[in-house]
Please model this.
Amino acid sequence: MRIILLGAPGAGKGTVAKLLTEYDGSIQISTGDILRSAVKEGTALGKEAKGYMDRGDLVPDELIMKLMEERLQQDDCGKGFILDGFPRTIPQAEALKQLLAKLKMNLDFVVNLEVPRDVILDRLTTRRTCSNPDCQEIYNIKSNPPTPDGKCKKCGSPVIQRDDETEEAILNRLETYQEKTAPLAGFYERDGILKNFESIESQETVKKIKAALG
Ligand code: AMP
Model:
């Protein structure tokens, strides 16, 4: 499959994407994960991106497009991909359209995950993430806690609250989402490839997405 996952921070894009990869071998491409690894490794991209990310602002479109142009041409994209957290702005969506045309790739459709704001806020403030860049397993202190001493159940690394998950950064990310990313639903609706899914429980959402894929 080739799909884009749209939805606010905390809408469950990462969880839904991981579940979908088990369906047909398509890979999850999360620009957020790629950027966090770059920050951790201290690459030039990471150094440039860190300030924006910590404040909950978007990283400039040119950096993201350079990264994605390379990523989408790697061999593992052959089986299909689930774009998680990209595109995030209208210029990114326009650039992606051109890039996919150049690479002769079509999207199946664009999934818009619709989640009530109170659910999103609760999820974001209780979310914790494995600090190992190769793992990045997501936990929730209420519904899916790490081990009692705060370690990842998969890889044993410390589970942390991300810098962009402070209350201030969370509110900024939600505002940025409304302003810059929410208009993408209209963009893809006009292209006739948008599908909306009310999404509270990820497993249920994945079933609905699979049914839509046929
Ligand atoms: P995420 O894990 O998808 O919420 O991304 C974490 C942070 O990485 C965001 O708050 C942005 O600062 C940055 N980021 C991720 N994807 C993008 C994108 N497509 N465009 C701009 N910034 C991005």
User: Anything to note?
Assistant: The longest strand covers residues 109-114.
